[in-house]
Amino acid sequence: MAVHITDACIRCGACEWECPVAAISPAEQHPVVNGSACTECYGFFGESQCMVVCPVSAIAVTEEPVSELAAKFARVSPRADLQDVDIWQRLRN
Q: In the predicted model, is pLDDT for residue 89 greater than 80?
């Protein structure tokens, strides 16, 4: 799993609204992330948008290799054009 939400979450919903692949869903304790759909925003933005918008820093990332994120992007968004991927290559390599 790329991203997960910790118990520090205040359930504001900002991460849910920001996720470009709708990988974050509401749940009883705090939102949950569908790890098979989460691309850490690879292909959409230069950084994980859920982390950017979280007002209490409740988002944690277990980094996945760029090749795995690229494969997820292709699977969950087959018609989308890649955006800002060069920054991921620089950050992860």
A: no
Task: Determine the Cα–Cα distance for residues 15 and 28; give it in Å rounded to an integer.
Answer: 15
> How do residues 10-59 score in pLDDT, each as one tens digit?
999 999 999 999 999 999 999 999 999 999 999 999 889 999 999 999 99
Which two structure tokens, joined as six digits, stand for 76? 């969950």
Q: Residue 27: left if φ>0, alpha if ψ -120 to 50, beta else—which one? A: beta
Q: Where are the domains of the chain?
A: 3-92
Beta-sheet pairing, 32-33 with 24-25: antiparallel
Neighbour-count burial for 73-92, b at 16+ CB within 10 Å, e otherwise: beebbeeeeeeeeeebeeee
- For the domain spanning 3-92, the CATH number is 3.30.70.20
